[in-house]
Amino acid sequence: MSHVPTFPVTETLSSDSLDVACDGGDGGLGHPTVYLHIKPETGYVVCPYCSRKYEATEKALSHTGH
Ligand SMILES: [Zn+2]
User: Fold this and answer.
1) Are 32 and 24 in contact (CB under 8 A)?
2) What is the pLDDT at residue 44?
């Protein structure tokens, strides 16, 4: 009960790239396409329009070339 998410995440998706394009998908949550960048430090980004959470896969993170 004490762990309230920072964002009201509606859905979590995996991405093989650190750059993702979100248009809200099907249904009533659609919005103009926006491009989001996943920060390697956090490994995810939340779309400010539809609150979908995009999580980078290990494959995506391995491309950052540490
Ligand atoms: Zn979105």
Assistant:
1) no
2) 97
Full set of structural domains in the chain with CATH: 11-62 (2.60.260.40)
Tell me the pLDDT tens digit for each residue of 11-64.
899 999 999 999 997 766 689 999 999 999 999 999 999 999 999 999 999 966
> Contact at 8 Å (CB) between 23 and 31?
yes
> 24 CA to middle of ligand 1, Å?
4
Q: Give the distance (Å) from ligand 1 centre to CA of residue 28.
A: 11
Count CB atoms within 10 A of the CB of residue 35.
8
CA-CA-CA-CA dihedral for 23, 25, 30, 36, to nearest 10: -30
Ligand 1 mean position, distance from CA 36 (Å): 9
